[in-house]
Amino acid sequence: MQVFKFGGASVKDAEGVKNLVKILQQEKLINCVVVVSAMGKMTNAFEALVNAILYNPEEKKKAFNYIKNFHEEILSKLFDPSSQEYQTVNELLDELYIKIQQINSKDYDFVYDQIVGYGELLSTKIVSEYLNQSGVKNQWLDVRDCIKTDSTYRDANVLWEETEKNIQKNISIGKINIVQGFIAADEKRNTTTLGREGSDYTAGVFAYCLDAKNVTIWKDVAGVLNADPRAFKETKLLKKISYEEAIEMAFYGASVIHPKTIQPLQSKNISLFVRSFKNPKTQGTEVTRGAALEPMMPCFIVKKNQILVSIATKDFSFIVENNISEIFQLLHDFQLKTSLIQNSAISFSICVDNKFHQFDNFVEAIQSHYKVDFVKEVDLYTIRHFNTESIKEIELVGKPLLTQVNKETKQIVIKPSDSHKSNF
Ligand code: ADP
Ligand code: ASP
Ligand code: MG
Questions:
Q1: In the chain, fewer beta carbons within 10 Å around the N or the C end?
Q2: Is the pLDDT of residue 420 over 80?
Q3: Matching CATH number, 299-416, of 3.90.550.10, 3.40.50.410, 3.30.50.10, 3.30.2130.10
């Protein structure tokens, strides 16, 4: 059994769907699970639809039509409008339309999961029907019959025992099984989601439960590179990396692999390949147990647009356990994610990601007890396997504000100069 995962970039248009089918044919897969995410940037479009449903009903129709037109354009390039395949996909769009009229919950996370997952339902129907039309037999499965989770909508936790049983029952050995990434179901059979970018994790869950031989995730890059190509001009392919290295890179923010993906694979020693759907004949990156980094070189990870916060007691007494516990409670209360922590006798520095836009409220709350300074719009660079040149290269980006080093890793918080300000 092999598991393939195709992300949004690989199925962003009709050409992408054709390319996916070509890859499956070239790889001569007969016993596999193929996990597919929503097409292109459709999950963002579904998020806009959810916002319209809950907060801006007059925008609902426009948001829905954008999604409908996007998929219909792809459909018209792949199928005859009078064909059964075209009708099958269209029925799903009709179902979505009815759902958005009927849904009456005001719980954002719940509504989000009931709506956003249509991106994956649509993409997998299109892929499955196009495979049928191309003469490639396959079985479309509703992943909600396979992956069971708790009811933490938008960030659901997999219930492994039940999931393993369901997967083993529903997946047909010796066939091409097409499933949705990212979505699952809770015990009431409401749709849940595994967190943004969660489809890589779906592939990991299937591989674990089926004792798969390997997992291949198909990306728009040559494999895992030594730096994010959106932030660095020159990048090199890492041919081999260990699970530990992949986990470290994902932890520090390398967005090429979802952080939760590796652990289920590592525990069963299942190899992960990251390959390019643009150049499917090339090898890409192999992630395995204990592999030495090949080639050995510094790897760069950048988290843009962070906030560096420095906290001291008002009377300049030492920062001790109870202060730290109080500070962390507030960080938790205001949903601030810390990406670096540094403690000295009288000050406590943290780099935070203001993903939920609650930073100003946090400052207001903490100011009553502590003296707080902060610098917004800083970038956090992490260099794994650093050497002198790699650090010099990063220091050209702007003014270093804080540095932290351990054996393999150096982190530098930088206020970027104007020419290096970019967001992605
Ligand atoms: P998917 O289509 O599966 O959703 P993503 O867009 O989530 O794919 O992930 C691929 C992207 O990850 C690449 O286009 C690249 O911009 C980014 N990326 C970040 N860090 C790295 C890295 N170290 N190596 C390769 N790609 C990286
Ligand atoms: N479609 C989902 C997202 O964009 C899941 C994924 O692509 O991995 O987050
Ligand atoms: Mg993605």
A1: C
A2: no
A3: 3.30.2130.10
